[in-house]
Amino acid sequence: MCGIVGGVAERSITNILIEGLKRLEYRGYDSAGVALVGQGQILRERRVGKVVNLESAVTEAQILGSLGIAHTRWATHGKPTENNAHPHVSDQVAVVHNGIIENYQELKQDLIALGYHFSSETDSEVVAHLITEALKSGAPLLQAVEQIVPKLKGAFALGIVHSDYPDELIAVREGSPLVIGVGIGENFISSDQLALLPVTNRFMYLEEGDIALLTREKIEVFVQGQLVERPVKELDATVTNTSKGNYKHYMLKEIHEQPEAIQQTLSQALNGNALREDFLKDAVIDFNQIQQIQIIACGTSYHAGMIAKYWFEQLIDLPCQVEIASEFRYRSPVIVDRTLYICISQSGETADTLAALRDTQKRAAAKHLMISTLTICNVATSSMVRETNHHLLTLAGPEIGVASTKAFTTQLTALMLLVLKIGQVKQTLADSVLAEIAADLWHLPKVILAALQKDASILGLSELFVEKNHCLFLGRGTEFPIALEGALKLKEISYIHAEGYAAGELKHGPLALVDNDMPVVILAPKDDMLDKLKSNMEEVQARGGELFVFADENSGIQSQDRQHVVKIPSVSNWLAPIVYSIPVQLLSYHVAVLRGTDVDQPRNLAKSVTVE
Ligand code: AGP
Q1: N or C end: fewer C-beta atoms under 10 angstroms in the chain?
Q2: Can you tell me the distance from the alpha carbon of 354 to that of 3, in angstroms, rounded to the nearest whole number?
C-alpha cells in the first residue's frame, strides 16, 4: 500500500530511486513521484499511472540529485491525480507517506487557519505543512520532525527531505513498514528491502516509533529523542532473486516455482519421514498447554486457514476457529485461555491481521490469560514475525505478482507441518500417520510438477472463459476453500465475477444462476465425497451449465458434451487442496492473459495491504 524509497549519497540517486519504485510498484501503481534536493531547492516530478510515466518525465527534465525521496501510490484519500501524487511539498520540505493519518481533517483545519494552502486532497500533505510550521521556531529539521510526529494519529511511514539540509534524510516508522539500506558512503530507505537490492544487501529494520536520521556517513535512530541501536543484517543471495527470468509475468514464474518453494518449506521441518528435532522446538511448551486454535488472516491467507481447520480437527482432534482479520479485530471476540492464535500472512504486514493480533495480545494480558501466538509468514523481518511468540517461515522467496500463488501453497505446506508438530507434542497423532503424511509431503513437489504439466490443456479451456461475465467454483471438504480461492484468483486478475461455493450449498441458492452461459469449475479429487460431488455435477448439467472439471485421474470422470475434464495426478486426500490449487491458478492466469488485463498488477489492488 504505497511504496517509499529514498536515499542520500555522493552520486546522483535519480536512477536508483526510479529503479526502486519499479520494484515497489506491486505496492501501488496509480501514480508516482520523486523529489530531489539540488542547487538548494526541491526538484519534483509527479505523474499519474505507472512508474514508467514518471521515468520518462524525469529523463526529459534531467533532474539529478544526491538526496531524494520517491513514492508509488495506492490511493486512499483523494483520486489518483498528479496533485494527489507524492512527494508533497511545503515551502522547502518534501514528504512521502505510506499509511493513513486518521486525524488529518482536524490538523488541516488548524493549518488552514494559520494560512497554509493545500494543493491536494490527501491526508499526507498535512505532514509537510506541520514540519514547515515547526521549523519556524528555529528548530533544526530532525527536532521539527520529532515535534510533529506525536500530533499524527494513525499508521504511517514517512520519508522527509529539506532543501537547506542537503545531506539529511529523515525516516519515521509508526505502524507502516520501513527499512534502511546500509551502503558505503550512502544510505537508503524503503518500504521493502526488495527495492534496494541493486544497491545493498545490508539492512537495518526500524521498529514502531523509530525516527532515523540518515546522512551519507551515518545512521542514527531515535526513540523519543533517545539514541537507540538497531542491528544491521545481511541478506543472503537466495533471497535476492527477483527477476522475471524468461517468464512473461511474475505470476507465471511464481506458479512454476511452487515445487521448489514447497521443497524449501519442507526442508526446515522434515528429516526423512520424521519431524526434525529442532523444528519449532521453542514452541513445545506452549503447544503442550494449548487446547484450541484461532486462526486470523485475510484473503488468500484466510483460505489457507480454512483448510487448516479441517486438518487440525480431523487429524489431531484440536478445535480450530478461523476468522477474517477485519471482522475479528472489531467484534471484541472472547479471548479464551490456552488458545494458540495463528496469524497467516504472506507479507506479515497486513494491517487488519496485525491489528487483530495486537488487540488480542493486549486483551489477553489485561485478563492475565495464557495464550500463545504464532505467525506463518513469507517475510522473516516482518512485523508479525517479530510480534508473535513463535513463527514458521514459508520460505517461498519473494512473491511479486499481486495474486498470491506460491505463498498460498507454501502456507498450506507449513500449516500441515504445524499440525504434525502439534499432534506429535500432544500425542494425538499416531507415529505411523505422521510418517505417512511426511512421506506424502516429500513426494508433493513431484505431484505439483506433474500438475503443472497440465498447462496446455488448461490453456485450451481458458479460451472458453474469455467472453464470460460470471463463473462458479464448487468443491467439498478441503476443496471448498480451494473453490473460494479459485474464484478470488479469477476475479482479481481477469475481472470476471466469480463465486466459490461448497458444492452441497448449490441447491440452497446458487443453482438459480446456472444456465447455458454459466461456466462451473469443479474440484474433484478422489475422496469420500466424490459420489456426492458427482450428483452436484449432474444438477448443474440438468440446468444447461457447462462443467470444467479438475478431476483425479482415477475418478472415472470423463469429458463429454459440455463437460471438459482435465485429469489431475492422484494425491493423498490430506494434500489434495495443495495440488488442486495449481489448475485454478493456471486457469485464472490464462484467462487474464487472453482478456488482456494487467496480470501482475491488477486494477485497484496492491500486494501488501498495510492500510485498512
Ligand atoms: C490474493 O491473491 C491477494 N493477494 C490477497 O487476498 C492477500 O492474500 C491478502 O491481502 C492477505 O495478504 P497477506 O497474506 O500478505 O496478509
Answers
A1: C
A2: 19
- 10-residue mean pLDDT profile of the chain (612 residues): values are 92 94 86 93 94 93 93 85 95 95 95 96 96 96 97 95 97 94 94 90 93 97 96 71 85 96 95 95 97 98 98 98 97 96 95 95 96 95 92 94 96 98 97 97 96 97 95 97 98 97 93 91 95 93 93 95 95 97 98 96 83 72
Interior angle at CA 48, CA 42 and CA 52, nearest 5: 85
Q: Can 2 be counted among the known catalytic residues? A: yes
The predicted model scores a pTM of 0.81
- Terminal CA-CA length for the chain: 10
320 belongs to the catalytic site:
no
Angle between helices 14-24 and 51-61 (to 10 degrees): 170
pLDDT, one tens digit per residue, over 406-453 is 999 999 999 999 999 999 999 999 999 999 999 999 999 999 999 999
Does any ligand 1 atom lie closer than 6 A to the CB of residue 301?
yes
Residue nearest ligand 1's atom 9 by CA: 299
Q: Which CATH superfamily is domain 450-595 in?
A: Glucose-6-phosphate isomerase like protein; domain 1 (3.40.50.10490)
Distance, CA 585 to ligand 1 centroid (Å)? 14
Asked whether 298 lines ligand 1 (CB < 6 A), one says yes
Amino acid 126: pLDDT: 97
Q: Which atom of ligand 1 is nearest to the CA of 411?
A: 14
Quick one: fold of 252-442? Rossmann fold (3.40.50)
350 lines ligand 1 (CB under 6 A): yes
Ligand 1 neighbourhood includes 347 CB (under 6 angstroms): yes
Distance 346 CA to ligand 1 centre (A): 7
Q: Which residue has its alpha carbon closest to ligand 1 atom 6?
A: 299
Q: Cα of 360 to ligand 1 centre, how many Å?
A: 21
pLDDT at 182: 95
| Of 2, 298, 343, 377, catalytic | 2
**Radius of gyration of the chain from Cα atoms?**
25
Question: What phi, psi does 271 have (nearest 5°)?
Answer: -130, 100
3-244 under CATH 3.60.20.10, yes or no: yes
Q: Are 407 and 378 in contact (CB under 8 A)?
A: yes
Q: Check if 494 has its Cβ closer than 6 Å to any atom of ligand 1.
A: no
Instruction: Report phi then psi at 32, rounded to 5.
Output: -150, 155
Determine the pLDDT at residue 236: 67
Domain with CATH 3.60.20.10 in the chain: 3-244
* CA 299 to centroid of ligand 1, rounded, Å: 5
CA atoms within 13 A on the CB side of 599: 22
Tell me if 300 CB under 6 Å of ligand 1.
yes
Cell numbers standing for residue 548: 470444467
Domain boundaries for CATH 3.40.50.10490 within the chain: 252-442, 450-595
CB distance 326 to ligand 1 below 6 Å: no
- If you ran DSSP here, which 8-state letter would residue 504 be given? G
